[in-house]
Amino acid sequence: MFKSRPRIRYRLQVLRHDPTAAMGLVLAVLLVYLVVAPLGAVLSDAFRVQFGDQVHAGQQPGEWTGYYLWRVFRSRIAELIFWEPLLNTVVVSLGTVAFALLVGGGMALLVARTDVPGRRFLAGALVVPYMLPSWTFSLAWLTLFKNERAGGQPGVLQAAGVRTPDWLAYGAVPIIVTLGLHYFPFVFLLVGNALRRIDSQLEDSARILGASRATVLRRITGPLLLPALSSAVLLVVGRVLGTFGTPYILGLPADYRVLSTGLYQSIRDRSTGVASVLAGVIVIIGVLVVLVDMRLMREQRRFVTVGGKGAMDRVGHLRRGRWPLWSVAAGVLILSVVVPIMTLLLSTVMRTPGVWRLDNFTLDFWLAESLPGAVGFPHGVLRGGELWEAAYNSLVIVGLASVICGVLGLLVGYVVVRGTAPRVAAFLRQVSFLPYLIPGIAFAAASLSLFAVQRGPVPALYGTTALLVLVMAVTHLPYSSRSGIAAMTQLGREPEEAAQICGASWPARMRRIVFPIQKGALVTGVVLPFVSGLKELSIVIMLTTTGTQLLTTLSITLVDYGYTQLANAVVLMIALVSFTMTYLAQRLTRSSLASGLGG
Amino acid sequence: MITLRGVSKSYGGSDLAVRDLDLVIPTGSFMCLLGPSGCGKTTTLRMIAGLEQPSSGTIEVDGRVLDSVERGLYVPPEKRRMGLVFQNYALWPHLTVLGNTEFGLRMRKVPAAERRERAIEALRMVRVDDAMERYPAQLSGGQQQRVALARMLAINPSVLLLDEPLSNLDARLRLEMRAELKRIHEESGTTVVFVTHDQLEAMTMATDVAVMEAGRLQQVAPPMEMYHRPANRFVAEFVGSPPMNLPSGALAESLLRCAGAGSGVGVRPEALRLGDPEPGAWQEEAVVEAVLPAGSSWTVRLRVLDGELFALSFRELDVEAGQKVRVWARRGQVHVFDAEGVRV
């Protein structure tokens, strides 16, 4: 025993001079609190009687209960609050996947493997739909196809005298099409990357052995693409699972509910127990989806090797099919970018949709000082304080969250790469990745469970900016910690060790060596979450109150009021900002959207 | 003088990266830690630098205890006043050559004017003072290597540690840098500890060589002594190129009959000669299997009894494949090893 005391003193001396291990521990505790604790809280809420439910549950508040499980899965309303939304979620997911596969996969093949005109342009332009907020498309859809079932301005077709049937205006079909238009770039990018990465020698060998180009595609390229395809499928499913805006806008008028909107509804109804169970279900499905995906990704790595040199001509010559196929691609581009944007834009400058008379055009919805009839928002969007306040809130909240996220990500990378505490490092790597498994809306619900009431020294954070910042930072942490780890790994620990040898203390090394060298990585780690955070809706919709309106929630509020033109105007603003930021970010950080796909 | 006493290092597993190392490195010497990759030589170097901590044992420099696990003493790397040149140089990409070289002096709060003067002096010593305002990315590999060296020379370290600094250079530059390092060592008088897996590098530059294998020290000796009197089979095989012949079977027995009792035997290629043997030498009938001329030397592969031997000659050999020759070696040049592989 007495022998080990100097050893401990020795260890302590080492730790005192290198705070990495201590920093790792602090980070680990922090992340457990921000990532793991909310999940624990939401699980515990699902199994405990909530205030107000004593009579129904027949138990005292706080007691353990299976009441909410029964209510969600087996009671008379289970059909309404769970099974139907679950079925709808499955239908929407599968439909969106099919749509995205067809469009995205087809476009990928066309751009990567044929001599269709304007390939470079198409490769960039077909990604644009993903840079727009996902519910841009649903607002455009509503503007076109809305019928009298919902209040407010009539749709363009209805104004023209065409009565659009409900199934075309609301519910599964429009949700699938609009989500499909938003998510096909996912498939386009993943499959396109895979097509480029397949070792051309594999295909060349088949050609040399006598296979035709078509046979090669069917028997060699196709099977090699399978992992990329399944990965794309699962990613889209995971996204659709947690998406809120589109099913809310297009589903609500027809009472078409999916799990995410059901969760939102339960939270708004203050049925915390039910909401917790729903959040739990979404978390479980989300985790399963990503775990399956990770398994497949491993297979893919085993499968597809980085391409060799000089391939045979891999580009299929379309000859007479060149221009017809080009027009198909152009059509996709028009339908997914031009039509939605133009629809929204036109709707904001016309009093009555679809009436092409000069006196029907107006800038009132943008500029008017007062708009009679719009009680909740009685002026043009650029007037009054609301838009600017929301923009300011968005900027501050998303900005703060991104900075926190970027710094945390780099610190996680630092601790992981320094390797002074391997076990802490491994734990950090995993726990910072955990939010990736959880659809944002469920994570927001979980955070509400934890932070809605005062717990110990932490005050109730519901409705505060702090909560928004925290949750947004945590949900984007997987991306920035991954890029932080990558950046630190690439740098290695030697530059810092060299400074240490030269006599630099830890603060001096961080200030003069590590941070200056990692400036670029830090910018990336901040900018990517910022860009995706600006158009984030699913998370913030759960957490904002009227006091803290963001751009995204403001547009939903306007949708709720039925002020179509105003809502469209706000979404256009978001789309403009989001597109510009994404474009600039790509230029600035020289990262492609493909690498930041998760965001 | 650097003293390592009972130094062991474990990375958590049952295997020790370094086990029970006792090593004394005299002041002003050029000590080479030589061994195959994974033998613990770099770990030893990093422990001397303080970048890694021994699991047990003591490290002292000139009587100052830097690490003593048993007494709970530890001096962090930034206070050890040593220099370390990394294998990949680890230059700071955001600082110029001058900025890199001045950094250590800045950390020591040396005034700006003197700092600049001393940095330029160090750069002049390694002959890159014409590229002071450039960034590392704009330098050639050889220049980067020199800046990495200048950066450490600038702080005038009592001990200069070099971790395979030449392995990323091409053959020509490596030859040049070997001579440079030797010159700089002689000019500065600093104690140098040099890690390499290249026995030629160790032989050509070091004043002392320490051979390690699997975390254990095998032998410490001046290079020529190590070459002529290897402590055991491992050192005998590792030091020298082409490596020592270590035959078995009837060929080994034939050599042992001449050289003395033992259970293993080795003979260097250059100790083998062809033609008429001296009296009392070991000799045997051989068949030439292949002749490999290399300009300045000739290597011949011989089939002898049930085994084969490589012979090296620095004079042109007038033999061809298939020819029968007599091969012989002086008795004193045949090394005999006991059952543990220790040289007898």
Strand content of chain B: 25-35%
Number of domains of chain B: 2
Global morphology of chain A: globular
Structural class designation of chain B: alpha+beta
Oligomer: heterodimer
Number of strands of chain B: 18
Strand segment count of chain A: 0
**First-to-last CA distance of chain B:** 31 Å
Largest interface, C-beta within 8 A: A-B, 30 and 36 residues
Helices and strands of chain A: which structural class?
mainly alpha
CATH class of the largest domain in chain B: Alpha Beta
Instruction: Determine the fraction of residues in helical runs of chain B and give it as a percent range.
Output: 25-40%
Protein name (chain A): Iron(III) transport system permease protein
Family (chain A): Belongs to the binding-protein-dependent transport system permease family.
Transmembrane segments (chain A): 21-43, 90-112, 121-144, 167-191, 224-250, 270-292, 323-346, 395-417, 433-453, 459-479, 520-543, 563-585
Subcellular location (chain A): Cell inner membrane; Cell membrane
Question: What are the key terms here?
Answer:
heterodimer, A: 599 residues, mainly alpha, MetI-like fold, 2 domains, 28 helices, 0% strand, disordered C terminus, B: 344 residues, alpha+beta, Rossmann fold, OB fold (Dihydrolipoamide Acetyltransferase, E2P), six-stranded mixed β-sheet, 9 helices, 18 strands, 28% helix, 31% strand
